[in-house]
Design a protein that fits this description.
The chain is 38% helix and 13% strand. The protein is of the alpha+beta class and 91 residues long. A hairpin with a 5-residue loop joins β1 (28-31) and β2. It starts with a helix and ends with a strand.
Length: 91
């Protein structure tokens, strides 16, 4: 995915997840060697638990990325599915 987005290669799965546009979607799960679920949440879980959609720090660093975040917000139209969600904009 880094190639598609013209980003430098990711250093790990968690690094890649940290570069998702929204904090609420920047989550990953896997099973460890003991079949226990491990949650990767580089931006935390507060926003997903409180129905808040915000940009990840990566998408606030540059105007081009901020524009991508804003386009994603429009495309996903979060409020049409979850009317109680709070969506934050950069611009």
């Amino acid at each position: 995915m880094h190639s598609v987005n013209d980003f430098p290669p990711y250093t790990s799965a968690e690094d890649a997840i940290s570069k998702f546009p929204e904090t609420a979607t920047a989550l990953g799960v896997k099973l460890d060697e003991n079949n226990k679920v491990v949650l990767a949440a580089p931006c935390g879980i507060h926003d997903v638990l409180h129905l808040e959609v915000k940009p990840t720090p990566f998408f606030t660093e540059r105007k081009e990325r901020a524009a991508v975040y804003e386009a994603q917000i429009r495309k996903k139209n979060w409020k049409s599915v979850w009317n109680m969600i709070m969506v934050s904009h950069i611009f």
